[in-house]
TrEMBL record:
The lineage of its organism: Eukaryota, Metazoa, Spiralia, Lophotrochozoa, Annelida. Residues 43-69 form the Antistasin-like domain. InterPro entries: Antistasin-like, Hirudin/antistatin. Gene3D superfamilies: Antistasin, domain 1 (2.10.22.10). Belongs to the protease inhibitor I15 (antistasin) family. It comes from Hirudo verbana. One of its GO terms (cellular component) is extracellular region. Keywords: Protease inhibitor, Secreted, Serine protease inhibitor, Signal. It comes from the Eukaryota. GO terms for molecular function: serine-type endopeptidase inhibitor activity. This is Hirustasin-like factor 4. It holds the Pfam family Antistasin.
Length: 70
């Protein structure tokens, strides 16, 4: 049980750190909601199973921030 709680807390920490950092991708910076693939910023494939009454927060490119309610 303690291991499951630790894993959940660790995953939440990783997602928060990821959400506040911009990543360099070639000559551009990806938003926190994007990943770099082949020197192009693409929407992150990470999906979250939480209920957000107003949907997830979306960046200027239309990509959803992982596990962040709007």
């Amino acid at each position: 049980m303690k291991t499951a709680i630790f894993c959940c807390l660790f995953l939440a920490f990783v997602l928060v750190v990821r959400a506040v950092t911009h990543k360099l991708c070639g000559d551009t910076k990806c938003s926190p909601a994007q990943d770099c693939q082949d020197d192009k910023c693409v929407c992150s494939p990470i999906r979250c199973m939480i209920l957000c009454p107003n949907g997830f927060k979306v960046d200027e490119n239309g990509c959803e921030y992982p596990c962040t309610c709007a």
